[in-house]
């Protein structure tokens, strides 16, 4: 999608003025990439106006690509949230990083999200060194501007632009919503003319079963610490519609070790109960119906090297 001329743009058939009902449509793919914890998913959720991707204070929260469809006047902006890019070790990590790079490859524009407070880190430097070779136009988006003195943003922009000449630079706070209108307007104007790829009301491509598993994983990320969150995966085993309009969802949480299982379950089951309680409340909001959520914790050594486990969360086994 690189055609930047409006359809039927001939002297006899000029395009209607923008804003009129017949104005030509635009549509394009925008990849959101960056180091773990930069705020990519927060940004995608903000722009989508709804939670499509889970967020946590811990790095490596997002594990697979998630698409969000955002309408801006006559432009359909198809955002792809991607896992943070870091030096991978496990098969899981390699598959996550591969998914991120694949997301960037066929985009019309890639947004490099940088945590402005963390600044130029080794992770950012190594991502830029790969992006340099890409043909995709890259925009720099400095995020978390609410956390630092704006005076520090300009030198950081200069340092980053020395490494790669970004087509555009934006300073935003995804959390507070600052600078997002400008970013959206610029994106809409940058995308090529063409028909919309998705129905206007298709917000995300995440199936409900995976959404349920992700919401449980978000609570694990928020309520457990150290090695537990990154050694846990969640799969929805059963989804049963009930006659009263509610749904029963059964999820299995896999962890690598018995000690991790013990932490997740907690004293007398208190931890897993709390994870379930909060995840259920969140799911009821998102699904707009009553939810009965059942969680089962299983020890499964080496799940993060198992192809079947990765496929279950939408990662292919190329790694
Ligand atoms: N203060 C502040 N915090 C932010 C902002 N954007 C994101 N955060 C916080 O940064 C943390 C990470 O946010 P995520 O959106 O999960 O980051 P991510 O880049 O998707 O992370 P990965 O999925 O791990 O790659 C969360 O605690 C967010 O609340 C911002 O503009 N300001
Ligand atoms: Mg994320």
Please describe what this structure looks like.
Residues 224-301 form the KH type-2 domain. InterPro entries: G_ERA_dom, GTP-bd, GTPase_Era-like, KH_dom-like_a/b, KH_dom_type_2, KH_sf_prok-type, P-loop_NTPase, Small_GTP-bd. Belongs to the TRAFAC class TrmE-Era-EngA-EngB-Septin-like GTPase superfamily. Era GTPase family. The chain is α/β, with parallel strands linked by helices. The protein folds into two domains: 26-190, Rossmann fold; 208-312, GMP Synthetase, Chain A, domain 3 (2-Layer Sandwich). The chain is 33% helix and 21% strand. Strands 2-3-1-4-5-6 form a six-stranded mixed sheet, with helices on both faces. The longest helix is centred in the C-terminal third of the chain and has 18 residues, at 270-287. The site of guanosine-5'-triphosphate has 24 residues, from helix 1.
